[in-house]
């Protein structure tokens, strides 16, 4: 038989099989846009802004619908009620981690963020306990953040009020807080090893938010057999883990079982205690992946929020002036801000929340998965199905936040000017998989921003009206455009 005919027949059978599989699954899953064979719905989605595409589809298909990334079905939950029902009301059912093929290549199911089942529960429990009970060392975490805020101020002074790109300086501060917990010590802001780590984090967040990675995660064969920026992510992760492994070996050589110095020591001690456990989770692989997760989640998300926050404050000088007025009134110019000040600074607290709401840092959340076959709103979702929860639809809900596309601290203030809490604030996700470092991140954002605004006037190098706050990429994360500003000492 002619090879061309054979090829056509094989492709036809493959397409028919694909259609049959998709239609049979769609009989159980929520309805959604009709997928193409093999390609799924990828041509109906804007890979530059998946979140926006899902919002458009929700207007046609409702708050719960299915889209196909390639041949893999993904259930999308859009709007506060659907997201709350899944992540909070039925948190255990939706506590799995959905598939992200690129991270599967780098983490291999280890660590906290991208693990599942027993590994996830053990690593998360241990990490939270260590961060709470010991990870902060003999000083409180607030002391560490305040010390780093003072170092940050000194570094900003060295810019001599000249225009500068704040990316690396703002990244160094939260990274150093994590370093002090993991390695016991902080780095100098000019340390080459430190700058290399920061560079790799910054590269990775930009790459994983790019359209190419959205395509790679849809068609994983591209990751294994094609060149592209995904290989840079894999290489950066490998380099970071090699550095952590070096530090771990140094710790092992000087470990005192009765006097742990930092997170690595605590993990090594736990490894020794658990070494006879048949279902051992405390392994070197989990140590490297867990610390890598803490690094990534504890550094890049906070630094990106700070960087985006300063851009918004440049764009809205009237907001900046009100924050500085509140700082002068409550803290003054000579005392370091502390976390207790937050309760007496409702406007500043509202500004920090509004920055997080407005920038919508992780628009579609880190993917979840259902842990067993479940019935949800009269649909049947099979075990392991990936779930995308649209945080955009919650943070930009126009009933809760009038004019959600406008940056307005008033979204978090009542008529009397008091801070107004809302369950719609899901910047850290919600439920069982809520960000493990939420408390630390909230503290850092408040203390770093208030300390900067206490010591400096922010000066834009362009007219505030001309500042564009549109993210340059909006895939996994919303990354702000590059910009320069001047830090003028007060």
UniProtKB/TrEMBL annotation:
Cleaved signal peptide residues: 1-26
InterPro entries, per database record: Cyt_P450 (IPR001128), Cyt_P450_CS (IPR017972), Cyt_P450_E_grp-I (IPR002401), Cyt_P450_sf (IPR036396), Cytochrome_P450_fam2 (IPR050182)
Record keywords: Endoplasmic reticulum, Heme, Iron, Membrane, Metal-binding, Microsome, Monooxygenase, Oxidoreductase, Signal
Enzyme class per UniProt: oxidoreductase
Gene3D superfamilies on file: Cytochrome P450
Localisation: Endoplasmic reticulum membrane; Microsome membrane
GO MF: heme binding; iron ion binding; oxidoreductase activity, acting on paired donors, with incorporation or reduction of molecular oxygen, reduced flavin or flavoprotein as one donor, and incorporation of one atom of oxygen
Needed co-factor(s): heme
Any one biological process term the GO annotation gives: organic acid metabolic process
EC number: 1.14.14.1
Binding site for heme: 435
Assigned GO CC terms: endoplasmic reticulum membrane
Domain of life of the native organism: Eukaryota
Family: Belongs to the cytochrome P450 family.
UniProt name for this protein: unspecific monooxygenase
Origin species: Camelus ferus
């Amino acid at each position: 038989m002619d090879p061309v005919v054979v090829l056509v027949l094989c492709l036809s059978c493959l397409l028919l099989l694909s259609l049959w599989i998709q239609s049979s699954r769609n009989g159980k899953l929520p309805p959604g846009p009709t997928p193409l064979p093999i390609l799924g719905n990828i041509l109906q989605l804007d890979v530059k802004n998946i979140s926006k595409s899902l919002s458009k589809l929700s207007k046609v298909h409702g708050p719960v619908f299915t889209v196909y990334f390639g041949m893999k079905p993904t259930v999308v939950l859009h709007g506060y009620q659907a997201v709350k029902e899944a992540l909070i009301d039925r948190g255990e059912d939706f506590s799995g981690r959905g598939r992200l093929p690129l991270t599967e290549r780098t983490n291999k199911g280890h660590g906290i963020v991208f693990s599942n089942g027993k590994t996830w529960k053990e690593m998360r429990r241990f990490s939270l306990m260590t961060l709470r009970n010991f990870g902060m060392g003999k000083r409180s975490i607030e002391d560490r953040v305040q010390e780093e805020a003072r170092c940050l101020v000194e570094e900003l002074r060295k810019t001599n009020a000249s225009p500068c790109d704040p990316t690396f300086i703002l990244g160094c501060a939260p990274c150093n807080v994590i370093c002090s917990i993991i390695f016991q010590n902080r780095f100098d802001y000019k340390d080459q090893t430190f700058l290399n780590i920061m560079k790799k984090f910054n590269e990775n967040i930009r790459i994983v938010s790019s359209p190419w990675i959205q395509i790679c995660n849809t068609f994983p064969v591209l990751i294994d057999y094609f060149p592209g920026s995904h290989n840079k992510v894999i290489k950066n992760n490998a380099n970071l883990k090699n550095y952590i492994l070096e530090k771990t070996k140094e710790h092992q050589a000087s470990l005192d079982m009765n006097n742990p110095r930092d997170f690595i020591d605590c993990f090594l001690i736990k490894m020794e205690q658990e070494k006879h456990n048949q279902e051992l989770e405390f392994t070197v692989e989990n140590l490297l992946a867990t610390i890598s997760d803490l690094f990534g989640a504890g550094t890049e998300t906070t630094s990106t929020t700070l960087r985006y926050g300063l851009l918004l404050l440049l764009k809205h000088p009237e907001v900046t002036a009100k924050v500085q007025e509140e700082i002068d009134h409550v803290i003054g110019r000579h005392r370091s801000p502390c976390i207790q000040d937050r309760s007496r600074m409702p406007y500043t607290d509202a500004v920090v929340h509004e920055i997080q709401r407005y920038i919508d840092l992780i628009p579609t959340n880190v993917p979840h998965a259902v842990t067993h076959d479940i019935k949800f709103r009269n649909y049947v979702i099979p075990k392991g199905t990936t779930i995308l929860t649209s945080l955009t639809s919650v943070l930009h809900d126009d009933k809760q936040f009038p004019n959600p596309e406008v940056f307005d601290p008033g979204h978090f203030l009542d008529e009397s000017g008091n801070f107004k809490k809302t369950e719609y604030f899901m910047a850290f996700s919600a439920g069982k998989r809520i960000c493990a470092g939420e408390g630390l991140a909230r503290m850092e954002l408040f203390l770093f921003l208030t300390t900067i605004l206490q010591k400096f006037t922010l000066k834009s190098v362009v007219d505030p009206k001309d500042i564009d706050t549109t993210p340059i990429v909006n895939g996994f994360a919303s990354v702000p455009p590059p910009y320069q500003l001047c830090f003028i000492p007060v």
